[in-house]
Amino acid sequence: MSSSALPSEVLTELRTSAIEVLRDNDLGGATRPSPTLYPHQWLWDSCFIAIGLRHIDPERASREILSLLHGQWPNGMIPHVIFSGSGSYHAGPDRWRSDLVDGGPEHVQTTGVTQPPMIAEAVVRVGEVFDPARRREFYRAIYPGLLRYHCWLYRERDPDDTGLVTLVHSWESGMDNTPAWMELTRRAAPIPLKLIRRLNGDGALDALRRDNKEVPSDQRLSATDLFTLYHLVGELRDARYDFSRIRASRVPLVQDVAFNAILARANDHLRDIAADIGEQLPNQLLRSARRTRAALPTLFADGMYWSRDARSGRLISRPTVAGFLALYAGVVPPDSVEDLVSRMTARRFWPAHGIASTPTDDPDFQPRCYWQGPVWVNMNWLLADGLDRAGRGDLAERLRAGTISMIAGSEGLYEYYSPFDGTGVGSNHFSWTAALLLDLLD
Ligand code: 2M8
Questions:
Q1: What is the third-level CATH fold of 8-441?
Q2: Would you kindly state where each structural domain of the chain is located, as residue ranges?
């Protein structure tokens, strides 16, 4: 349990509300991220959710992860959303039409892209609370699908063996409107969209969006950015979500630093899972995993880790929280840890309540707008985990305690929080905030 200075009644109340949120968002075998904005199942959300659920119902936590395999494509991809709920979602099945893709998923509708590969981490965390026999049974159930997913990531998204997988849409990064991605994405904006913008402005486009019915537009990405992301989904759909065709289109291609950092850690976990059940990872995957570790340092320049524009080969030098996930991957050389940590703890990134998604002096910074500034609980959780392993357990503990008080101060379990005053913003009753809070409190 994190050493939060809050009175025990407050901690008990927090725990109770977190459990209630997870219960209310339970769709059966999977959990929606929030009751209104996100009514289906998301990949990395389910992983964070399972990490929390293991403290109250380990069996349910294991089902949360296994249910991700229901959406797995025959080629091995685990999609970023499995459309399993009944509510309306602004980028629902009609935008993706996975049912029309040869080699699409068989019994469900899904999106055609993936999300950060947090599954192996969640599997290991859930495995920790089972006894050895049950743990191995769970590992055996998840292993074949998880292995196929990791193989797909390298086969499909790193055909040139660089060690870094390439993402084709900012929704794959999970940090939808982060400046690093939007810089490239806006450049790929289609001419008609630019025209609409000139004629009508963002306000008119705003009236056409559906994601701002519960959350005010100024806490979401701009309408122009949103419609650009929709347009890019159309291009991916036309390319049948096939990387060799996508490469020939105009969509941005990014070797995303956070995604690859999470993959590096996930490969280690997958190897441990395999060893526990007497399996061995295929040599090719072991080789790719080594390449990822060797390639992550190539994303380092001027004291930071950056994503790379895979088309131009240039690093995208827009500082965001993503770069600090090199700590989570465990690839920062010991003699560089302090320098990276001092950048992360500087006021521009850590003004009060945890690590801002975009630093406060960035031209795109907005304290209440989505991935353009707010603090996210999953980022604080990942960074605290990385800090522990980098020998900065003191700072990890401060980050965890700060996260708990930030949530406690805002009377709600929000999607994200202002880095200045900790005001909760975005969707309320947000599942991964609830789940990771349970984990921090345990
Ligand atoms: C947000 O993204 C979705 C698209 O995937 C959206 O805005 O509709 C992101 O914060 C993403 O990281 C998250 O997984 C998802 C559901 O919580 O919402």
A1: Glycosyltransferase (1.50.10)
A2: 8-441
